[in-house]
Amino acid sequence: MFKLIYKEFRLAAHPTLIIFMFLGLMIIIPFYPYTVVLLFGCLGPFMSFLYARETNDVFYTALLPLKKDDVVKAKWLMTIIAQVGQLLISVPVAAYKIMEKFESNPVGIDANLAFYGLGLISFAIFNFVFFTNYYRTAYKVGQAFIFAMIPCMLINFGIEALSYIPATRWLDGTSQELLIKQVPVLITGIVVYAVLMAITYKISVNRFRQVDL
Q1: E strands of the chain, at which residues?
Q2: How many CB atoms lie within 10 A of CB 33?
Q3: Backbone angles phi, psi at 107, to 5 degrees
Q4: 211 φ, ψ to 5°?
Q5: For residue range 93-119, what is the model confidence (pLDDT) as tens digits?
Q6: pLDDT tens digits, one per residue of 180-190
Q7: Percent of the chain with pLDDT over 90
Q8: What are the residue ranges spanned by the domains of the chain?
Q9: Cβ–Cβ contacts within 10 Å for residue 109, how many?
Q10: Does residue 111 contact residue 27 with C-beta atoms inside 8 Å?
Q11: Higher local confidence (pLDDT), 68 or 141
Q12: The overall pTM is greater than 0.90
């Protein structure tokens, strides 16, 4: 499996996938809607799927001595690595801003534990819609992306709106007290991402098995 993942990043992944991973560092930008960073975590995999289609990567991979399931698993793991990697790259920057007591973000949610938990949920829902639609044909990348971006954008708008709603304003702070309250949100995000990605893989594999390459 390591060789297959290496092949994905070496041959199939579009260069923007790596670039967009490091855009997690945009968390350092003050007065910025940080859910934009999450959009790059969706655009990177999309660009790679599009690039793979244009280079006939699915057909090439299917010709290798692999199970059809592994073709899906390679793209699935590549997406997880890219998205989780982007968030992990941003963590030191977010931690630095919290420790240095940067001014609260006036245009949306702060980069705190709630942001990471909700960001994982946004990623999970995007991936579920994108993968399950794409592997109906293993070809219609653009259609799958449009379908996936609709709920993703709605969730991201909702995340930013939380800081303006009195009842959910505790999700927007970076004080020690509020960070402790946000821990369950982070844990929920991790669980939702793990469970929904497992379901995404199962459904995608079943649909790809029906595709006549």
Answers
A1: none
A2: 17
A3: -110, 15
A4: -80, 130
A5: 999 999 988 888 888 899 999 999 999
A6: 999 999 999 99
A7: 71
A8: 2-209
A9: 25
A10: yes
A11: 141
A12: yes
Residue carrying structure tokens 């910025």: 32
Query: Which residue from 129, 110, 103, 128 is spatially nearest to 185, judged by alpha carbons?
Result: 110
Confidence of residue 213 (pLDDT cuts 50, 70, 90): low
H helices of 64-136, in order, are 68-99, 113-134
Query: 69: closest CA among 3, 145, 4?
Result: 4
**Lookup: tokens for 209:** 């098995």
What is the residue type of 45? P
Integer-rounded Cα radius of gyration of the chain: 18
Neighbours of 140 (CB within 10 A): 15
Which amino acid, one-letter code, is at 51? Y
Phi–psi pair at 50, nearest 5 degrees: -65, -45
Residue 135 near residue 210 (C-beta atoms within 8 A) = no
180: number of CA atoms within 13 Å, CB side?
A: 2
> Tokens 């949306």 identify what position?
108
d(CA 149, CA 178): 30
Residue type, 12: A
Residue that the structure tokens 């059809």 belong to:
68
Q: Which residues contact 194 (CB under 8 A, 6 or more apart)?
A: none
